[in-house]
């Protein structure tokens, strides 16, 4: 029985701006769902307010509405498209579900005759309302922790008195653990209870007896209309209960479960999914398991939608959960659908893993001064990375190498903690770097049992760490000349980077690489194939590992490599790694468009990235996907293997840009703007000199490499001063200082965090207007794709500013200066591809703040506002396939588009919310207005100075 014939037009609700707790995993699942529905000839209508995503690209749906996610917008769309038959709300996270419920309560779906598919309202209500969920679980015989719900402060106090501490408080109908906390101290209970009741939209909380130290698991399920259920992936949290799963290090497949308990857990998950409602789609179930021989299982929660973990499970298994979930929602059954990877097995075939994946969250606490860095039930991470390896140790190392926090893996980089008290404190209070601190503790000689008693992390994981420590000790006895092939191969199989091995042997990374090549210890690439190589897979989705040579009967020796190199000309696109503040989903948008443009030009496209939440790491975006750390050693080995024509670095944000120097040094062709030009723009001092030579105005400046030099400069330039380090992203370390004490303290702190950096000090143009321009240049001609004016004054990072396209308050004289300066700078930097330039305007003079010859945060925004594929054009220019004059530019925008930043301060209630030169927003939305007289614009403009900090 194939799909339903009565569903011809479907509305999909997106997840809106990126916030902590709801990130680009929903861009990935929404994009997959849209493609899946369109394959079946269904008309797709999308509402989503996020301009930075692939999902809102005009090519993704038949009709894309970049509108605020509210019922007013929904009614407007339903009036315009009376043909809509159904709404699919399960691809847009909690935001989409909540909007779907609100529209249902207001009778909107009923009024317009729209059916809800992929989930039913009862299922959402049962799973979100913690009291209803508890009653249902007890009715069907599923264990629950001792818990009770409260809808008033008094009732909450009574429950606490009955249960005793520690307690867990969870708010109903919230996202990313908002309002949740573990309370050990009765004195803090009142505050936490009040906060949770306030945060819950229905003012209800569930109070649980805390299951501290229990192990936590997640299962990803899919069910069709015939009640077939498959379990796609079982994920084990390395961190025990008490840390939000989005902030936990997670491992797949589950490592420490007995088979008997695993089967019980599977049966319970299926029973739970069947009991919450009769719907076809995806589901995520979370369990706690007692850490003793009994392995008691207790249900924590169930989410009847694709989730953060669904994206992870999809990338971990190669099984496209959202794509299949969308097909199930329109009436297909699992046995009618083929597995997208093997094409020969059905979607009813459960994935089998012959490798291990480790996910590590990526935090950004440095952006929230004074924030509570303790990990708990409220999610605080802004992104995540995933490592794939043949063993847990290899996957763990690859994940830590992917984080981009200046660590080379576990240990062996001289950056670990050595102080016993500090280590014990960091183990006791779960913090973002605990994954590294466990290794430091073992190195210091802290017994495994003590580490286990403090952290409650399963002994199996700790023993894996201990083995790595013993291997490091063993290797450290040798030199590069005396190290055996056997030991070097073991180190590589366990994920140690060449850089780490060089640290152990006290030699250079290049020497380790050279020795590896001589001893034929080469990376080989294996397929992610969903079936442990039981069936032939047709999907080019690879991870790297190291293997022993195989000897055939005729004496031939070789290492099996699944990645066959073609003779086509190839282009590598470097991805942007984990999401973080300052570098988010907009760069993934750029990478995907870069890949598609290179394919249009006839190249075989190769994507390298390690972010499981994104469209760039979908198995069918590029011709070949290497799910590997964006880390020099991994990239270099892939380049040696594939021998591409060149590498595109200007689409992957600062991550890819930072690798340009190495690529240049090793003679690898950088597509587009050369390393020399990229470096010139990044080096604040050299760039200011270039402006001087070209007679372009800039604030009075000087460079300093010590605090003494900075203080001497201050006398010359005068306060207030803007202090800016070189080679940073998202305004990291930028600050406005108003006296010598502030200046000295900030410079000393900066040079401690970023040693040997060249700091630029320039006179801060108080009260100036800020603007920016994005352009495409081919080395001869330049086309400015957009000029945006910031509503906030100069001094607030461009990523945190409300910005209008086109400008609303700049005269023709000023705009002409912006055009002239942009052209002059782009040509002086020999730009080939994209460039973003930021300006400060004071007394009708346009000063240059900085230039970035790469894709910027605003490029996707401008492309969406004007309806033109600028990244596609820029990539073709970089590849030398087209010149600027070959394109027929035809931007179309009635009125104005406003880029509105979105903040996640609610996760850090005690943090200073003032804005300044360092970026703090986690996402953005787009707002279209017809004229400047509209209330929305007036409100933004009247508040423009509210948060300015110096």
Give the SSE layout.
Blueprint: E1 9-13, H1 25-39, E2 43-47, E3 63-65, H2 71-80, E4 86-88, H3 93-105, H4 108-111, E5 115-116, H5 121-128, H6 130-139, E6 147-150, H7 153-163, E7 167-171, E8 181-183, H8 186-199, E9 205-209, E10 215-223, E11 229-237, E12 250-252, H9 259-276, E13 281-289, E14 297-303, H10 308-317, H11 321-329, E15 356-362, E16 383-389, H12 392-402, H13 420-428, H14 434-444, H15 448-455, H16 459-475, H17 485-493, H18 498-505, H19 509-518, E17 524-527, E18 541-545, E19 550-551, E20 557-558, E21 570-574, H20 585-600, E22 604-609, E23 624-627, H21 632-642, E24 646-648, H22 653-657, H23 660-665, E25 670-671, H24 675-682, H25 684-693, E26 701-704, H26 707-717, E27 721-725, E28 735-737, H27 740-753, E29 759-763, E30 769-778, E31 782-793, E32 803-805, H28 812-828, E33 832-842, E34 845-852, H29 859-866, H30 870-878, E35 896-902, E36 923-929, H31 935-942
Parallel strand pairs: 1-2, 1-4, 2-3, 4-5, 18-23, 21-22, 21-24, 22-23, 24-25
Antiparallel strand pairs: 6-9, 7-8, 7-9, 10-11, 10-13, 11-12, 12-15, 13-14, 15-16, 17-18, 19-20, 26-29, 27-28, 27-29, 30-31, 30-33, 31-32, 32-35, 33-34, 35-36
Helix pairs in contact: 1-10, 1-11, 5-6, 13-14, 14-16, 15-16, 16-17, 18-19, 20-30, 26-27
Q: What best-fitting shape do the alpha-carbon axes yield?
A: globular
| Helix-and-strand structural type | alpha+beta
Beta content comes to 15-25%
What's the total helix number? Answer: 31
Cα-atom radius of gyration? 28 Å
Query: Low-confidence runs (pLDDT<50, min 5 residues)?
Result: none
Number of separate strands: 36
- Helicity, in percent? 25-40%
Main-sheet strand order equals 14-13-10-11-12-15-16
Query: How would you characterize the largest beta sheet?
Result: 7 strands, antiparallel
Distance between the termini: 65 Å
């Amino acid at each position: 029985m194939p799909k339903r014939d009565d569903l011809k037009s479907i509305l999909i609700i997106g997840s809106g701006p990126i916030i902590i707790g709801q990130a680009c995993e929903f861009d990935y699942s929404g994009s997959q769902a849209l493609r899946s529905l369109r394959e079946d000839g269904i008309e797709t209508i999308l509402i989503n307010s996020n301009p930075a995503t692939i999902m809102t690209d005009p090519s993704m749906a038949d009709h894309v509405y970049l509108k605020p996610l509210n019922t007013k917008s929904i009614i407007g769309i339903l009036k315009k498209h009376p043909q809509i038959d159904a709404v699919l709300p399960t691809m847009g996270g909690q935001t989409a579900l909540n909007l779907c419920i609100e529209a249902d309560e207001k009778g909107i779906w009923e009024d317009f005759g729209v059916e809800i598919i992929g989930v039913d309202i009862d299922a959402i209500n049962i799973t979100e309302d913690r009291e209803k969920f508890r009653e249902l679980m007890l009715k069907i015989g599923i264990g629950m922790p001792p818990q009770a719900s409260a809808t008033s402060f008094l009732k909450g106090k009574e429950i606490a008195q009955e249960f005793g501490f520690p307690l867990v408080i969870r708010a109903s109908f919230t996202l990313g653990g908002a309002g949740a906390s573990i309370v050990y101290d009765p004195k803090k209970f009142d505050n936490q209870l009040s906060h949770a009741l306030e945060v819950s939209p229905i003012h209800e909380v569930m109070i649980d007896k805390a299951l501290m130290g229990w192990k936590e698991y997640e299962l990803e399920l899919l069910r069709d209309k015939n009640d077939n259920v498959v379990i796609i992936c079982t994920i084990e949290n390395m961190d025990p209960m008490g840390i939000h799963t989005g902030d936990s290090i997670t491992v797949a497949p589950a490592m420490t479960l007995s088979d008997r308990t695993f089967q019980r857990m599977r049966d319970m998950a299926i029973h739970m999914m069947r009991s919450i409602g009769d719907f076809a789609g995806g589901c995520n179930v979370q369990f706690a398991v007692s850490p003793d021989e009994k392995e008691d299982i207790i249900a924590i929660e169930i989410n009847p939608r694709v989730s953060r973990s669904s994206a992870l499970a999809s990338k971990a298994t190669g099984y496209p959960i959202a794509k299949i979930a969308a097909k199930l929602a329109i009436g297909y059954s699992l046995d009618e659908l083929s597995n997208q990877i093997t094409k020969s097995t059905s979607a009813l075939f459960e994935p089998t893993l012959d490798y291990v994946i480790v996910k590590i969250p990526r935090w950004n606490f440095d952006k929230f001064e004074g924030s509570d860095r303790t990990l708990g039930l409220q999610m605080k991470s802004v992104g995540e990375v995933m490592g794939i390896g043949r063993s847990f140790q290899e996957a763990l190392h690859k994940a830590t190498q992917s984080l981009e926090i200046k660590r080379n893996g576990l240990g062996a980089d001289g950056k670990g903690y050595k102080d016993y008290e500090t280590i014990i404190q960091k183990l006791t209070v779960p913090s973002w770097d605990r994954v590294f601190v466990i290794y430091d503790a073992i190195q210091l000689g802290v017994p495994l049992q003590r580490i286990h008693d403090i952290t409650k992390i399963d002994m199996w994981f700790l023993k894996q760490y201990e083995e790595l420590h013993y291997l490091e000790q063993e290797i450290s006895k040798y030199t590069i000349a005396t190290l055996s092939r056997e030991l070097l191969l073991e180190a590589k199989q366990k994920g140690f980077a060449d850089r780490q091995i060089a640290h152990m042997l006290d030699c250079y990374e290049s020497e380790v690489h050279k020795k590896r090549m001589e001893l034929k210890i080469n990376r080989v690439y294996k397929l992610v194939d969903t079936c442990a190589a039981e069936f032939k897979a047709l999907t080019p989705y690879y991870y790297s590992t190291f293997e022993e040579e195989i000897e055939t009967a005729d004496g031939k020796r070789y290492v099996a490599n699944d990645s066959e190199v073609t003779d086509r000309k190839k282009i590598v696109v470097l991805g942007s790694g984990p999401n973080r503040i300052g570098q988010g989903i907009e760069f993934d948008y750029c990478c995907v468009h870069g890949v598609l443009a290179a394919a249009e030009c006839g190249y075989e496209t190769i994507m390298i990235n390690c972010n499981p939440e994104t469209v760039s790491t979908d198995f069918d975006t590029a011709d070949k996907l290497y799910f590997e750390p964006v880390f020099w050693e991994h990239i270099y080995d892939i380049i040696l293997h594939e021998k591409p024509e060149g590498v595109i670095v200007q689409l992957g944000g600062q991550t890819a840009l930072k690798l340009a120097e190495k690529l240049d040094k090793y003679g690898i062709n950088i597509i587009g703007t050369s390393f020399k030009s990229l470096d010139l723009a990044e080096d604040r001092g050299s760039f200011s000199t270039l402006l001087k030579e070209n007679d372009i105005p800039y604030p009075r400046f000087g460079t300093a490499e010590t605090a003494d030099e900075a203080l001497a400069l201050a006398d010359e330039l005068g306060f207030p001063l803007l202090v800016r380090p070189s080679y940073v992203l998202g305004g990291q370390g930028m600050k406005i200082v108003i006296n010598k004490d502030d200046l000295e303290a900030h410079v000393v702190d900066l040079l401690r965090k970023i040693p040997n950096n060249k700091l630029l000090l320039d006179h801060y143009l108080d009260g100036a207007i800020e603007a920016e321009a994005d352009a495409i240049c081919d080395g001869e001609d330049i086309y400015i794709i957009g000029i945006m004016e910031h509503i906030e004054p100069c001094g607030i990072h461009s990523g945190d500013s409300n910005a209008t396209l086109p400008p609303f308050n700049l005269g023709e004289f000023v705009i002409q200066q912006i055009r002239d300066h942009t052209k002059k700078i782009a040509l002086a930097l020999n730009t080939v591809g994209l460039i973003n330039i930021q300006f400060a305007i004071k007394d009708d003079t346009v000063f240059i703040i900085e230039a970035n010859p790469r894709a910027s945060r605003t490029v996707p925004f401008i492309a969406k506002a004007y309806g033109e594929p600028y990244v596609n054009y820029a990539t073709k220019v970089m590849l030398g396939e087209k010149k600027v004059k070959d394109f027929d530019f035809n931007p179309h925008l009635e009125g104005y588009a406003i880029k509105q930043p979105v903040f996640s301060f609610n996760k850090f209630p005690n943090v200073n919310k003032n804005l300044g030169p360092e970026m703090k927003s986690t996402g953005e939305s787009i707002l279209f207005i017809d004229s400047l007289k509209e209330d929305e614009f007036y409100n933004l403009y009247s508040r423009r100075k509210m948060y300015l900090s110096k």
